[in-house]
From TrEMBL:
Lineage, broadest ranks: Eukaryota, Fungi, Dikarya, Ascomycota, Pezizomycotina
Composition bias, Basic and acidic residues: 36-67, 79-90, 114-128
InterPro entries: DUF1690
Record field: transmembrane: none
This protein's name: DUF1690-domain-containing protein
Region called Disordered, residue ranges: 1-128
Length: 196
């Protein structure tokens, strides 16, 4: 256990013969204008040029892809020959879902109404009108009932207790039980009402 040293050992190698360089190598090194810093800068410039050329190549390919996709998206419906085969379409897309024979609008079991305009005829005003109609439908839906005052009071008591006993929240067990009881009453009333 203590017999080995914990410090790393150093090895020094001594050459048996003196190391000699030829005069041409020495002259070449002395006459070279390059230094370590200039070589590092040159390497850095080459790397930057390579990265820039790769980025430009990727950017060009992406812009070609984007222009191809933009050209393929039209406001006119595609011709029969342009439609992809059903097995080539991605089944996870919205278009595949809507064109599915199993999809039906929940309001109209027979599909979209006949008075709907095709998408190519849509204008800003028609889309705005459609949005307003949807908002009115959403606003006309049944609102959530107000919480009873007993539940609201139990909730306020619980919150107040937890704030005053922020270091000892288990001291609020009575308020928690009161809140649970009031919520339980609401649940029972909802189940009775829904069961009718």
């Amino acid at each position: 256990m203590g017999s080995g040293s914990s410090k790393p050992e150093q090895h020094v190698f001594n050459a048996d013969a003196p190391v000699r360089f030829s005069q041409s190598v020495v002259n070449g090194l002395q006459s070279s204008p390059e230094t370590d810093s200039t070589r590092a800068k040159d390497t850095e410039l080459k790397i930057q040029q390579r990265v820039n050329s790769e980025l430009k190549r990727i950017r060009d390919s992406q812009s070609k892809e984007l222009s191809k996709l933009t050209a393929s998206l039209t406001t006119n419906p595609p011709k029969e020959g342009d439609k992809p085969a059903p097995d080539q379409r991605d089944p996870n897309t919205l278009a595949a879902h809507l064109s599915s024979p199993f999809y039906q609008d929940y309001k109209s079991p027979t599909g979209p109404p006949a008075d709907k305009k095709p998408e190519s005829d849509r204008t800003h005003d028609s889309v705005q009108k459609e949005i307003m109609d949807l908002r009115q439908k959403l606003d006309s839906r049944k609102k959530v009932d107000k919480v009873s005052p007993e539940v609201e009071k139990a909730k306020e008591n619980l919150v107040m207790c937890l704030r005053t006993n922020d270091r000892r929240p288990l001291d609020c067990w009575q308020e928690v039980e009161n809140f649970k009881a009031e919520v339980g009453k609401l649940e029972k009333a909802f189940i009775q009402k829904a069961g009718r």
